[in-house]
TrEMBL record:
Classification via SUPFAM superfamilies: HSP20-like chaperones
Pfam families hit by this protein: CS (PF04969)
Superkingdom to which the source organism belongs: Eukaryota
Gene3D superfamilies in alphabetical order: 2.60.40.790, Single helix bin
Protein name stated in the entry: CS domain-containing protein
InterPro entries for this protein: CS_dom, HSP20-like_chaperone, NudC_fam
Span of domain CS: 16-104
Matches recorded under PROSITE patterns: CS (PS51203)
Length: 158
């Protein structure tokens, strides 16, 4: 049932008419997807993930992305992979349940409506995680949605 509350679509950050990256999020992760240029050997790509900074690109060239992250991440459980023609960066949120409006500070921020939809979806993911026998995929909020991190005492751990 949790897969019903997975992100329906990726958000796109477009600059000068070009897609820079796509991204989505869950309660625990932010995923960034970057289309790789053709004819570059996979061993030429690199990605450095720090708690508040992301740098990635092709070795020997200026970085493709070199930005502060919107929120801190757990570096020991964040990673990157190359899948087909895509670099997939998985950032483990330090604060589970926090709604990110963008992975990168000041770049591709979600509009308030989209941010509200994300917060509602993450809140439903939290309900699903805490109540695995129930299906929250059709649940709706009326009015403003509470913060998934702090609602009713916050997210339970372990």
């Amino acid at each position: 049932m949790a897969e019903k509350l997975a992100p329906e679509k990726r958000h796109c950050f477009i600059h000068n008419g070009q897609t820079v990256f796509e991204w989505d999020q869950t309660l625990e992760e932010v995923n960034i997807y970057i289309n790789l240029p053709p004819n570059v050997h996979p061993k030429q790509f690199y990605c450095k993930i720090q708690s508040k900074h992301l740098e990635l690109g092709i070795k020997g060239n200026p970085p493709y992305l070199n930005h502060e992250l919107s929120c801190p991440v757990k570096t020991d459980s964040s990673f990157w992979t190359l899948e087909d023609d895509t670099m997939h960066v998985t950032l483990q949120k330090r604060d589970k349940g926090q709604t990110w409006s963008s992975p990168i500070v000041g770049q591709g921020q979600l509009d308030p409506y989209s941010s509200d939809i994300e917060q509602k979806r993450l809140m439903l993911q939290r309900f699903q995680e805490e109540n695995p026998g129930f299906d929250f995929s059709q649940a709706q909020f009326t009015g403003s949605c509470p913060d998934p991190r702090t609602f009713m005492g916050g997210i339970r751990t372990g």
